[in-house]
Design brief:
Blueprint (H helix, E strand, L loop, with lengths): L1 H31 L13 H18 L10
Helix pairs in contact: 1-2
């Protein structure tokens, strides 16, 4: 049961991290059209990008602790 919970947590962090990353990239794309030239739109979304990267990295680390499924031949 504990291994299954770890697997769900790993997938959950990956999905949440990917969703935050997609939101940040879409926000950068939309803000870029409204800003004057020479202004970096990424600066306002740095915390979101860092959170998305951290969650995906946590998911990667947790995936090493998941049990391997035995394939039947």
């Amino acid at each position: 049961m504990k291994k299954k919970l770890l697997s769900y947590f790993s997938y959950g962090t990956l999905i949440i991290g990917a969703a935050i990353g997609i939101y940040a990239l879409a926000d950068i794309y939309l803000i870029r059209s409204k800003l004057p030239s020479g202004v970096c739109p990424v600066m306002s979304n740095k915390p979101l990008i860092y959170v998305a990267i951290a969650l995906c990295f946590i998911s990667l680390i947790l995936s090493f602790f998941e049990p391997r499924s035995k394939e039947k031949s």
